[in-house]
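Notebook entry, structure prediction.
Reason for the run: the old model in the group folder had no record of what sequence produced it. Starting over properly, with the input documented here first.
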Amino acid sequence: MNLTKIFKRAALASTIGAAALLVGCGTTNTVTEQASTTINGMKAGGHEYILTVTRPNQLHIVDTETNQLVRTCDVPGIFGNGGIAMSPDGRIAYVMTNKWEDIYGFDITNCEIKFSAKQSYSNVQVKSFISMAVSADGKELYTVQNPVRKLLDRFETMEPRLAVFNTEDGLNAKPVRTFPVDRRITKIGSMQNGEVILGGGDLKAIDPQTGKVRLIKALQNWDRAPDKWVPPDAFAMHTMGEHVGEFIMPYFTIRWNGAPGDESQADFLWGHVRIDTKTGKVESIETVPFEFIVFNWVTDPNDKDILYGSFNQLSKHNVKTGETVKVQPMDHTYYNINMTGDGKTIYIGGTSSDISIHDAETLEKIGSIQLTGDMSTSDLRLARLK
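New structure, fully documented this time:
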């Protein structure tokens, strides 16, 4: 064989090899790209899921696209308040359990427990009333602990405190820092600047690195004219707002239009404090009639002046004008409400064993999801799986 033929065959082999390599690379990229959009059969890339907890003690994950239950995880311990806090990547759901004492972090794609913390120790019993949040970077978990020392002849009430956990500490994690906080703090939230919002009689923020506390909005201790206003009763139950990046807390107040105490001329109103967790901007307004009983508000992503609430009925309100836009009767009482990030679908849960699904524009019921056991006071959280 002459050199010309050898060179031609070598060139052909090189070309074929390069083409195969390019095809192989293309195949690898395609597989990697496809794999990145699903995790253990669940859609990622920002796909949205609704999470809640039911008795006897199970975490449920619902796909908002199909409204189908995709996974159920068994939660250790006795049912607590059903509180849930999500990691920023939407993958880890931290669940409060065992009568409001223990926390377990679940990978929602496979139910694997990645984190746990037992807050009680020795003769000290610790309860966290709903209050649980994850830092904006996902590295820390916060709870407000209410400890009681159990002695032979009495219970000794101890000072409440913010407890800070490292989420990377895995199983049997212990607080790495604690700071004293006010009593009556229930729901809390995290801000992009690192502060933790403390929802109690007044609305405050604490730096979880130093323990420094600042006032966001005085409610119980507000200084508005007492002949015109009754100090609010802040209702800090469920934490909503992850779909639009906010923390919102309702409160009840009375505006005296005549003499103080003259209820015949008074306005009984819902107000709220709304905090943009990215910018820190605070809004406070009282416009919604108190006849619409709610446990929490949820904001329309397409119009922040529109709020939705639920209890015995689903209601839609324009807080800027004070107008009640729509009201929809419901099958029974529901404690909790949330919605998708596109503002099209509302989910209403808590109390019983079914999640009621509604069109956000008309409020009409468009579906239902039946779960095992009742949700009681459980959260109804939105997670975006990245």
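Summary: The two ends are 59 Å apart (CA to CA).
The old model has been moved to the deprecated folder.
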